[in-house]
Specification:
The chain has 341 residues and is α/β, with parallel strands linked by helices. 35% of the residues lie in helices and 23% in strands.
Length: 341
Amino acid sequence: MNNDKLGVAIHGVGWVASAHAASWQKNPHAEIVSVSSRRKESARRLVDQFDLDCTIHESLEDALADPRVDIVNISGPNYVHAEQGIAAAEAGKHILIEKPMVLSMEENRALRAAVERAGVKSIVSFVLRWVPLFDNMKSLIAAGAIGELFYVEADYWHDLGPWWTGWDWARKKQTGGSTMLLGGCHVCDILRWITGDEVVEVAAMANNKTERMEFDANVVALLKFRSGIIGKTSALFDLQMPYALNVDVAGTEGTLRENRLWSKKLLPGQTDWATLPTVMPDSGDVTSHPFDAEINELVDCIRADRESATNIADAYHSHEVVLAIDESLAQGGRPVRLSLE
């Protein structure tokens, strides 16, 4: 800790790192003390963009050895997340890690175990959890506005392509992982968050119409939750339309469709959907994501010595759902039971 501020090392300076840096600068209890990347010139661009007074380290190892560093912000390509997260934990650093945090169950187990052994705080960038729409949904569900849940649905539809700076590594199986790991993990996580329930079985199907990706670009999966709730999730990358994230929740007394509410309990005699005036997850641009709230949460957890509900131990289960969907695809759509322990 430097001058009573938590020292932050940003490692990996792609598209999302600039949004992270902007949010770190707003937190009064944190200070960016290090930026590092595979290419020094990329790190220099980020430093210049935000006029940072910090060290440009040549490697993650150098950043981890810097005694001023308390938190490592891991924001490089998907395939390095787990390895770097484990290294950060073993160095005793708190962790902010981009999604997906792992590409396999072996990495999932290893990262969770490393963080548990080290006793460091962590947060995973499942940023939908800080979108006000979902706070509204959780509050209405908790108040019984739509009764007992029996069906949930969430879709991640994004026309990814060469316009994205991460396209070259993201489209490859070895470095990007899969459609569900690349983007679908967001909706798998938000369904766990909204329901407060765990998925116990999945079955999936997929296709790949444009073959721009080495894995199936379009995936749909059926979900069964521990409580008996059933659901569906999809992630589509071949579609031709603006970014969309769709969420529906059906209960015995009403329904939520994004920011629209139908509730026999709260609105007797209702004749049309009630619209909630709230912030929607309607952009895939990282500059619109609620990183301020995510970073504030991690800093508060460190200062108060508490765990975040969006830490690596919890994100383990969201990644397990995603990896079970990928396993079902590998088995031709056969149902796969969780846990994958």
